[in-house]
Structure formats: C-alpha cells, structure tokens
Amino acid sequence: MKAKLYYLLEQRAADCRYFVIPLWRGSGYTTMFAQVQMPHILFTGLEDYKARGTQSAPYFTVSYYNEFAESKDLVLIRGDVVFTSKISDTEAKWLLETTQSFYLKDVRYKLVERFNKETHDFEFKDVLQALDMPIL
C-alpha cells in the first residue's frame, strides 16, 4: 500500500480502534469484529468476542511493515489466517480490503467513527447498505 494511505489508516485507527464487518456466507452473513492496533489488525467473530472479550482468539491477523515507507513510498502487508476452519484465504483477503476501505474512504469512515464515538447512533444496517448487502 502507498505510505500516505498507511499513515491515514494509522491516524484514524488511533482514534477508532474497533469496527464490525459482515462477512457474506451462503444466504446470510457472519459478523466479524476488527481490533485495529497499528501496525496490526486482529479479526475474530463478533460472537466469540462477546463471549470471551480480549481472550478471544483471532481468526485472522494482519501486520503492516513500514520500513520502506520513506524510501520507496511503500508499506508491506502480511495477512495470516489463524483458524482455517473459521475463515478462508479468499474471505480473509476480502475482509482486509473491506476493512481498509472503511478506514480510508471518508464516507465509510463516518460509520467507523459512529461505531466508536456515537455508539447509540450506530446502525449495523448502514454497514450492510454501504456494502450493498441485504438487511436480513
């Protein structure tokens, strides 16, 4: 990723460390919980997080390496699926791209801010609509 985008992600993540993303499966979706602690993002199922809190094991982890940010304008990204029984490589890739889009696109970032700062006003259906997913 370009260094400028990484720095924007890092800045926004410092303010808004959590978000929820629906992961479409078959005729419905599983809600994933993202914990953004730069230079890492941890993804786990929302139900697992509700049950175990910070003790819940991540399904998928992402690490950013910014050693080339200054010299090459490049930040490397590594994703590791921890539980292949919980999430596929394809789903993990989509989850990372989608989460980054919520943090990097201004219109979508408003939902991340609302989730973290104005929780009582947050509506999950707005996330579904932003992703063109049906409201079940």
Automatic annotation (TrEMBL):
<dbReference type="InterPro" id="IPR010591">
    <property type="entry name" value="ATP11"/>
</dbReference>
<dbReference type="GO" id="GO:0005739">
    <property type="term" value="C:mitochondrion"/>
</dbReference>
<dbReference type="Pfam" id="PF06644">
    <property type="entry name" value="ATP11"/>
</dbReference>
<protein>
    <recommendedName>
        <fullName>ATP synthase mitochondrial F1 complex assembly factor 1</fullName>
    </recommendedName>
</protein>
<dbReference type="GO" id="GO:0033615">
    <property type="term" value="P:mitochondrial proton-transporting ATP synthase complex assembly"/>
</dbReference>
<comment type="similarity">
    <text>Belongs to the ATP11 family.</text>
</comment>
<keyword id="KW-0809">Transit peptide</keyword>
<keyword id="KW-0496">Mitochondrion</keyword>
